[in-house]
Amino acid sequence: MRLFFIFNMEIEPYQIDFDSKFASVLFELEISVVFSTYQAGKLMVLGTLDGGNLHQIPISFKKPMGIAVKDDSIALACLDEIEVFGRNNYIAEQKSVNNKNFDTFFVSRIVYNTSSLDIHDLDFGQNKIWGVNTMFSCLSTFDMSNNFVFKWKPNFIDEIVPEDRCHLNGMAMRDDLPRYVTALSKTNHKEGWRDNIMNSGVILEVPSSEVILEGLSMPHSPRFYNNDLYVLTSGNGNLIKVDVENKSKELVYDFGKFVRGLCFIEHYAFVGTSKIRESSKTFNGLDVKENSKNAGIIIFDMKLKKVIAQLKYNNTIDEIFDVQIIKNSMKPAIISKQDERSKQVITFANQVFWRKPKED
Predict the structure, then answer these.
(1) Which long-range contacts (CB under 8 A, 24 or more apart) does 125-129 make?
(2) pLDDT for res 278
(3) Domains of the chain and CATH, by start
(4) What is the C-alpha to C-alpha distance for residues 91 and 81, in angstroms, rounded to an integer?
């Protein structure tokens, strides 16, 4: 199938090809897929309200990266801030303001001014948000007093300075705390990870900094599934299962493309793919460059160990960083602080009021 979505007539339309199975999986699970594309400056929502029709909704942000989804909250790391959204189902019931039939609304509630930390993975812990602070090579939380609160760094990093020394990028949480992280190298000098990008990646245990695996090709998106750790090695297009006790790995599937962004629901894995630019000096030597011609989303069946559906972008979107699932919603609206409606709506308990916009 092919779908054209025109968000603004002045820009190129979002043109995608997708398998009918893609929409049916979303419909059966009653979910939406949300992914970030820093290259296009969008948070994209993919959903369906019936078994065959897929819809996509782009929301503009400055360099959106890590996405955290937990219960009724979403957090998004952007260029210089983290924006947090809260779910409100009652807004959707007001047909006078919901002419597009969204089934729930996520409205901007909190914004942390982080400045330029180059935050990658993001997740909710107990009463706080954790982020991979890539610029300062550490893990951070966020509060009202500072741009970030230092929590942990790899033991080979000797000082907290804004030099992106090892390109710390991924974080897997367990019991509301970071348990494993991924980095592109163990280097301790400014942008040292660029020196040997193909096979210098590592998986580290937190807080010990113990090396679980090394010599990996650009590891990203560490995630737990059925109590096991899975990681994408973007440089060679693999999904691997990590045996943390024996410090070994098992190849689950070779996608043959640049893969980054991973989440699980039931027996499905949703995997992001990215296009490698011809002009990219950093990624020019990757094994998967030849097959990485489109950005998109893959649905992979963990039981059958095969790809069952794909969606790819033919224009506009080239690079995807994070992929997450919104449960119990097939057409959510995400209202950012830039949207005037976030200033006009007033909610409390099960009540919704709208302030009339000021006239010019």
Answers:
(1) 125/173, 125/176, 125/177, 125/178, 126/176, 129/68, 129/75, 129/82, 129/84
(2) 65
(3) 2-343 (2.120.10.30)
(4) 26
276 DSSP 8-state letter = P
C-alpha 35/C-alpha 112 separation (Å) is: 20
Residue 62 has pLDDT above 90, yes or no: yes
Contact 240, 256 (CB under 8 A): no
Tally of CB atoms within 10 A around 157? 20
- Element at 20 (helix H, strand E): helix 20-29
Give the residue among 234, 302, 240 at the shortest CA–CA distance from 273. 234
Residues 6+ apart with CB under 8 A from 218: 184, 197, 198, 201, 233, 234, 235, 286
| Nearest Cα to Cα of residue 107 among 334, 358, 359 | 334
Residue 223 CA: distances (Å) to CA of 228, 317, 318: 8, 24, 23
| 268-319 residue pLDDT tens | 999 999 998 766 666 767 778 888 889 999 999 999 999 999 999 998 999 9
Question: Which tokens in the block code for residue 259?
Answer: 């893969």
Q: What is the mean pLDDT of residues 229-251?
A: 97
Q: Could you tell me whether strands 296-301 and 306-313 are parallel, antiparallel, or unpaired per DSSP bridges?
A: antiparallel
pLDDT digits (tens, 9 = 90+) for 117-172: 999 999 999 889 999 999 999 999 999 999 999 999 999 999 999 999 999 999 99
Q: Where are the beta strands (DSSP E) in 117-218?
A: 119-125, 128-133, 138-141, 149-152, 168-174, 177-183, 201-205, 211-216
